[in-house]
Design brief:
The complex is a heterodimer of chains A (271) and B (198).
Chain A lengths: L16 H14 L17 H29 L2 H25 L3 H16 L8 H4 L10 H7 L7 E4 L3 E4 H13 L2 H4 L2 H21 L1 H9 L4 H17 L10 H4 L15
Antiparallel strand pairs in A: 1-2
Helix pairs in contact in A: 1-7, 2-9, 3-4, 3-9, 6-7
Chain B lengths: L1 H18 L2 H4 L3 H21 L3 H15 L2 H8 L9 H20 L9 E10 L2 E9 L6 E8 L6 E7 L2 E2 H15 L4 H10 L2
Classes of the chains: A mainly alpha (271), B alpha+beta (198).
């Protein structure tokens, strides 16, 4: 029920050349043909059996480590401090979003995030306070490389359940990988200070896991089929985000050419 | 002069004839917004009262029953399977579904304590109206909730709530589908399970 996608630890501090080669290969493979993910009402999940096994693994990691850590973190840390840490992490994610908005040619999102970053870094004391929101500035764009690929016309591709990170389309798996390189801060900031950003981001994810513990538990442990439930929620939320928030974003008319799919909510009164 | 007056009179009465029955016939941006305003006011009231869990569930069920088209939501969560139900089964399913939704989502209200919902705007989409609102929760970036309002049931009611792109109706369709699979497609089994779920 809540933005579950925030609950992912997305700034693993590793990089490698083969990873980039793989990303390029996937990118090339993904272009050209109509997007099969969007031409059917069922999720495009040809590796479902493998994905379900990985989902079970992720669930066991959550049960043994992430959930207890998140709940413990939320209990141990005062709410106000949790908010400061999460503000700090959010602010540090903005430069990467600015780069992606630039790659998408989206000047408005770029300047929105840039102003937020300037205001929160200065008046907000290094990003600890979300002054921009208090001042009613426009909301942050949350641009990432998965979205950039969408704007560039790359298809969703099959679903993949990533270890530790959960369900993702192929396009967004590549996006997550590339985003490890798109944050200008990781080039501008020296390595001991870089750690603060990563630590804040991990803490903020734990905080989300803790604060929305009941909601996330209800999806992971109380659903009749937690794999199907998380897959459905992920896809709905992700399609909404990459398309910039319109309710037309569930399907991709550019790919399918089908007007029937241009709005995800068919009128239930017509069935 | 005379001509002008006549024309004005004809145009005026034509406009009046068109406009007069409108409120009774069609859902407008304003009436969709008015409905969601009531829903949001009631939800904000429940959040602010921060009562016990069972009271919150009961409140949510009351709000859901009054302002949502539970029949159409329940029916569409069954998808194509809805056609195979007898009317008695459909009624039993709808009742069980109402209680299930109230328990499942009513429980979540305690996470909203200290938060609030604000209505942003409304627009027409296809045959319904979409009212956008923003939810402010303590320590979280604000997020968006859309209410999809239709009058095709004969009354202005909402038939879906979409949180950051996640539709309650479509998500429950997945969940109900899984529950039905677990019962090998047996509707009565599903209804029995629903009564104890959520």
């Amino acid at each position: 029920m809540l933005p579950v996608s925030q609950y992912s630890i997305s700034s693993a501090p590793w990089r490698s050349r083969p990873a980039l080669a793989l990303a390029t290969a996937l990118l090339l493979a993904a272009c050209g043909t109509p997007d099969p993910a969007l031409t059917r009402s069922e999720p495009f999940d040809p590796y479902e059996a493998e994905n379900r096994k990985m989902h079970e693994f992720n669930r066991s990691v959550d049960r043994a480590i992430v959930r207890p850590a998140g709940v413990g973190y939320t209990k141990a840390i005062p709410d106000d401090v949790e908010t400061l840490v999460s503000n700090f992490a959010t602010n540090l994610s903005l430069p990467s979003a600015i780069v992606n908005s630039a790659l998408q040619g989206n000047g408005r999102a770029m300047s929105t995030d840039l102003y937020r970053f300037i205001v929160n870094t200065t008046i907000g004391l290094g990003g600890l306070f979300d002054t921009a929101t208090d001042l009613n500035m426009p909301p942050k764009s949350d641009a990432d490389f998965g979205q950039t690929l969408y704007v560039w016309g790359v298809h969703e591709g099959p679903l993949v359940e990533l270890p530790f990170l959960g369900a993702a389309t192929t396009r967004d798996s590549v996006g997550k990988l590339v985003d490890l390189f798109t944050n200008p801060l990781s080039y501008a900031v020296e390595s001991p200070e870089q750690f603060y950003g990563t630590a804040a981001s991990v803490s903020s994810s734990l905080s989300t896991r803790g604060q929305f513990s009941d909601t996330i538990d209800s999806i992971l442990y109380e659903s009749a089929d937690s794999y199907a439930a998380t897959r459905s929620i992920y896809l709905q939320n992700r399609r909404f985000k990459v398309s910039g928030g319109g309710s037309e974003g569930f399907a991709d008319p550019y790919d399918t050419g089908s007007p029937a799919l241009s709005d995800p909510y068919e009128d239930p009164y017509e069935q | 002069m005379n001509n002008n007056l006549t024309r004005r009179f004809v145009l005026g009465s034509a406009a009046a004839a068109l406009a007069a029955p409108m409120p009774a016939l069609a859902l407008t941006d304003a009436s969709a917004k008015a409905l969601v305003n009531k829903v949001v006011d009631e939800i904000n009231g429940v959040i602010a009262s921060s009562r016990g869990l069972n009271a919150m569930i009961a409140e949510f069920e009351r709000i859901f029953t009054r302002y949502a088209d539970v029949n159409i939501i329940a029916q569409s969560t069954l998808g194509a399977d809805a056609r195979s139900l007898s009317s008695g089964q459909m009624r039993a399913y709808t009742d069980a579904f109402r209680g299930y939704v109230a328990r499942k989502y009513g429980k979540r209200f305690n996470e909203f304590v200290g938060g609030r919902i604000e209505i942003k705007d409304v627009r027409e989409v296809k045959s319904w109206h979409e009212v956008r609102s923003t939810v402010y929760l303590r320590g979280e970036s604000p997020f968006e909730v859309r209410f999809l309002v239709s009058d095709r049931s004969g009354k202005d009611l909402f038939f879906d709530m979409v949180i950051e792109g996640i539709s309650l109706r479509l998500s429950e369709r997945t969940e109900i589908g899984s529950m039905l699979d677990r019962r090998n497609g047996n509707i009565d089994g599903l209804i029995a399970d629903l009564k104890t779920s959520g």
